């Protein structure tokens, strides 16, 4: 009978140890997943910000190029004779 009780106690200790290991591994896996997801999200946000900056830069260059008079002294083709609306005033 004492042998059976000793086996039961050993199994209970092993069960407790295994539960603690599962909890620790679950926390570790959860934290690794959170870190992986947050770093991926951060990379996406940085990429989107870079794209927005490039688009703004291209638009500003296009607006500046359209508002500059050409070297021949001709009117810019973007100016409408009737309304005199330039694209730069539309975007602002």
Overview of the structural elements:
The protein is mainly α and 92 residues long. The chain has one domain. It has two helices and no strands. The chain is rod-shaped. The N and C termini lie far apart (90 Å).
**What's the pLDDT, averaged over the residues?**
77
Which structural category do the helix and sheet elements fall into? mainly alpha
Order of helices and strands: HH
Major beta-sheet overview: none
Q: Span from first to last CA?
A: 90 Å
| Helicity range | over 70%
Count the E strands.
0
Question: What is the beta-strand fraction?
Answer: under 5%
- What value does the Rg take, in angstroms? 34 Å
Low-confidence stretches: none
Count of separate structural domains: 1
Gross geometry: rod-shaped
């Amino acid at each position: 009978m004492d042998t059976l009780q000793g086996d039961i106690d050993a199994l209970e200790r092993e069960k407790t140890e295994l539960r603690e290991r599962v909890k620790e591994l679950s926390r570790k896996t959860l934290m690794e997943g959170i870190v992986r997801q947050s770093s991926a999200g951060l990379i996406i946000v940085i990429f989107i910000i870079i794209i927005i900056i490039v688009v703004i830069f291209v638009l500003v260059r296009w607006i500046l190029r359209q508002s500059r008079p050409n070297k021949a002294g001709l009117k810019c083709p973007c100016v409408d004779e009737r309304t005199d609306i330039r694209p730069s005033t539309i975007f602002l």
